[in-house]
Design goal:
The chain is α/β, with parallel strands linked by helices. Helix content is 46%, strand content 15%.
Amino acid sequence: MRQIFLDTETTGLEHKLGHRIIEIGCVEMRNRRLTNRHFHRYINPERDIDAGALSVHGISLEFLQDKPRFADIAAEFLDFVRGAELIIHNASFDIGFLNAELALLDMAPISTVCHSVSDTLRMAKDLHPGKKNNLNTLCERYGVDNSRRTLHGALLDAEILAEVYVAMTRGQESLIMELSSESSGQPETVEQAQTRAPGKAQRIIYASTDELAEHEQVLTAIEKESKGKCLWHSGAGVS
């Protein structure tokens, strides 16, 4: 599965009030490894930026004056995320803004382009109910370095989110491996067990020469008493 970690910065909190996207940051992951491919654009919103939003991301309208509009980068952005699973922290916020921008261009919602959308805020709430689950808190909880995050930035936050996601889902990866082995219906070898859980493979104890001799004596006695019907000697009872 190709996964895209996405974040946006905006002029304000409500797209329904006409607020716009001013930055999009995306990083790509395949097989739980970052590919070093990313999409990052600053966008001219053609409107003012709320003071509260400016204090969060520090992106001024003056800085954005010579940047492209969303219409100018929409096709390139959609090509980058097409067919991927989008992973977003507080996905309803970013998806709401993206769909509002696409609607202004008479384009279909983002869900028609992407494979699916996963919300890491919802995942974190399920894992840690009743606790704070913002991105900074999750970085502290999972030991992810966020020292560069003095202000919110879409690309940096997408990169940090990718690290947090890998840490949050590490246990799921191990579980999937175990379930895959069980569902195959094949007994697990010692080598497989050691690979899956180093140092925890079951110890195999073989019978000694004396024990094998005693076992053979028992089978001979059974053979005699049953008048040649000992299944173990005939091999019919071996599976």
